[in-house]
Amino acid sequence: MAQNKNEWASKVFGLIRAGNAGAAMAQIKVAPTVGDLQRLQVLVKGLPNTKENRQLATVVEEELALLSAPRLHRAP
User: Fold this and answer.
1) 7-17 and 34-45 helices cross at what angle (nearest 10)?
2) What's the CA angle centered on 37, arms 73 and 13, to 5 degrees?
3) Are 37 and 71 in contact (CB under 8 A)?
4) How far is it, in rounded angstroms, from Cα 58 to Cα 64?
5) Rounded to whole angstroms, how far apart are CA atoms 40 and 47?
6) For residues 52 and 40, is the Cβ–Cβ distance under 8 A?
7) pLDDT of 8-65, one tens digit each?
8) Measured CA distances, 50 to 56, 66, 71 (Å)
9) Are 29 and 63 in contact (CB under 8 A)?
10) Which of 9, 44, 62, 75 has the lowest CB atom count within 10 Å?
11) How many CB atoms are closer than 10 A to CB 66?
12) Listed residue (40, 41, 50) closest to 19, CA to CA
């Protein structure tokens, strides 16, 4: 069964839109792939420029950098 590639990003973005930034940040820290984080990054960039949204964007950028590092990966 093939999964929709945007499913994870959409679910995390739903948490953000619902105002549950803490849960969204926890999910960002365990993102399955770099591609998922990149899709979420695009969605987060479209949010209004508030302090909380800037913090979320920073968390996404940091995790993207960590997950992109050649020696770090998440087990499937």
Assistant:
1) 40
2) 140
3) no
4) 10
5) 11
6) no
7) 999 999 999 999 999 999 999 998 889 999 999 999 999 999 999 999 999 999 999 9
8) 10, 24, 34
9) yes
10) 75
11) 13
12) 50
